[in-house]
Inverse folding.
């Protein structure tokens, strides 16, 4: 198919120039279509599969809960999702993990979500301001850690080492919660750090450390724990100035109806707190 | 032949089985762009456009896409020639490999680049110890990511042109004593120039829009690696209107360049 595309793309040199343009445009359109099909995989919010729906309709009403949750909740919420499915036979929980800011925008634009768990009150406000959620509840707190690759090649020991120009630092962009928290902590310490990159979410920042592409990054304590030894975490006193509150809310007009509320209740319950604590969160 | 080759279409009623999906297809391609125009914050457009971050991202995008196109031309045209003119063992496999980045999700391309050219990558390690060069998080890294994703467009286009070109001219030149290099330079290249141009334009357009490999391999920092598509994505986090403005700029640049190239080099009616 590609070879055919190639032949279409180019007219023989003796042909009138206009056909070169035509085939160029055609090739462009085809190529963009090919690239588009290949390139757009991830990031889409989960929606109910038709097959699931018919299989479950025999047992009753909507049985699927779609939860939009901050990337840092990936481990603990996946576990809670399984517990929820076990406690409510026939239901399934679908997750869309990502940057809280992106998720908030998707919800405001009408993504079919039932529950939103954000990594900062500011991103939750985007959703409540748009009237898509009732009053949220804080269910967890997260603090920052300096993450360094295993073995700590640059010998980072405290926050002020990140200001050393020889140390390559990755931070989250300030538009996303982990970046806002990092900026707050650095401000509190009075440090000017020039990162080499401002990543889109905390998992992307962590990956740059895991791969050893940077010497240090500011990520959440939970991410250091989740990385299972691939990065080392260093606690620093200024982190207390930038504690992130995680709010959760059932969304108004949730397609799952009362099930959405029940998932929120599970997160706030003791088993929910246990799962979050295990992942490294503090719970209120 | 002359009668059949008229410019007018074949007469007769238009078959709706073709026209209906064609119009639907057109709407599908054009409506999202129209949506951008409708939702654009026209009132605040001038001051938003003049923001230094916008100009910075635009400049970076244009510079890196052009540099990536040059890289693709320098490496891609000879590669296309090799595929089209030299009897390589396993040529089909090589050709398939060359087109892999075309169908590979760009993020995967970015990860692959990190594993090879990253600071701890197979070749990257050596680059750093021998030359003190690290590519990730640099503008050069953006060029590498864009060239990786865009090169197949050029190679496919040029190889197609080479296969379609009449080899008798090259043979004639060779009989007259021209070396293979002279034949390539004086006969082959001028013969396939339209194909090279078409490939270069495709390549440039693809590089301009590159997102996944860039953000994965080169990171995201204003002024050094934050190209327009990255700026659009980041703006979407908090300020959808700013994202629309940036998208408009990218759209306008693409249209202007494609239209400009048409008038300049591919003269048509």
């Amino acid at each position: 198919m590609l070879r055919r595309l190639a032949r279409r793309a180019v007219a023989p040199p003796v042909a009138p120039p206009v056909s070169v343009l035509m085939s160029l445009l055609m090739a462009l359109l085809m190529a963009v279509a090919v690239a588009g099909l290949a390139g757009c995989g991830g990031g889409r919010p989960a929606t109910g599969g038709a097959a699931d729906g018919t299989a479950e309709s025999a047992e009753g009403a909507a049985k699927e809960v779609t939860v939009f949750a901050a990337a840092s909740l990936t481990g603990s919420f996946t576990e809670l999702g399984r517990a929820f499915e076990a406690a409510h036979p026939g239901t399934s929980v679908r997750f869309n993990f990502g940057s809280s800011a992106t998720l908030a925008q998707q919800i405001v634009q009408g993504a079919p979500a039932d529950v939103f768990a954000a990594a900062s009150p500011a991103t939750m406000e985007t959703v409540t301001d748009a009237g898509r959620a009732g009053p949220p509840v804080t269910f967890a707190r997260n603090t920052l850690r300096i993450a360094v690759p295993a073995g700590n090649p640059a010998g980072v020991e405290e926050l002020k080492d990140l200001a050393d120009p020889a140390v390559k630092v990755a931070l989250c962009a300030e538009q996303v919660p982990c970046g806002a928290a990092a900026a707050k902590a650095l401000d509190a310490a009075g440090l000017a750090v020039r990162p080499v990159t401002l990543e889109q979410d905390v998992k992307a920042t962590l990956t740059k450390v895991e791969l050893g592409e940077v010497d240090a990054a500011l990520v959440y304590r939970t991410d250091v724990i989740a990385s299972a030894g691939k990065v080392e975490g260093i606690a620093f006193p200024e982190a207390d100035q930038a504690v992130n509150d995680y709010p959760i809310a059932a969304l108004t007009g949730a397609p799952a109806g009362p099930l959405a509320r029940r998932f929120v209740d599970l997160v706030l319950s003791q088993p929910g707190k246990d799962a979050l604590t295990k992942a490294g969160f503090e719970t209120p | 032949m002359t009668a059949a080759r008229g410019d007018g279409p074949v007469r007769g009623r238009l078959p709706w089985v073709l026209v209906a999906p064609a119009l639907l297809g057109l709407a599908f391609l054009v409506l999202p762009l129209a949506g951008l125009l409708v939702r654009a914050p026209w009132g605040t457009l001038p001051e938003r456009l003049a923001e230094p971050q916008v100009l910075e991202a635009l400049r970076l995008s244009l510079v890196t896409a052009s540099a990536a196109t040059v890289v693709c031309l320098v490496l891609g045209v000879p590669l296309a020639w090799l595929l089209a003119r030299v009897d390589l063992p396993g040529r089909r496999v090589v050709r398939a490999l060359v087109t892999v980045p075309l169908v590979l999700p760009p993020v995967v391309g970015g990860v692959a680049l990190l594993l090879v050219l990253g600071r701890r990558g197979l070749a990257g390690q050596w680059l750093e110890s021998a030359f003190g060069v690290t590519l990730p998080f640099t503008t050069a890294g953006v060029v590498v990511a864009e060239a990786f994703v865009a090169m197949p467009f050029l190679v496919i286009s040029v190889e197609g042109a080479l296969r379609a070109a009449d080899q008798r001219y090259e043979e004639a030149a060779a009989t007259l004593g021209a070396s293979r290099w002279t034949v390539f330079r004086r006969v082959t290249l001028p013969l396939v120039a339209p194909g090279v141009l078409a490939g270069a334009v495709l390549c440039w357009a693809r590089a301009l829009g590159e997102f996944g490999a860039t953000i994965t391999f080169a990171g995201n920092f204003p002024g050094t690696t934050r190209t327009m598509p990255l700026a659009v994505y980041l703006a979407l986090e908090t300020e959808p209107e700013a994202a629309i403005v940036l998208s408009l700029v990218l759209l306008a640049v693409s249209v202007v360049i494609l239209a400009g190239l048409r008038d300049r080099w591919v003269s048509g009616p």
Observations:
- Residues 1-60 of chain A have pLDDT under 50 and may be disordered.
- Chain A touches chain B through 48 residues (CB under 8 Å).
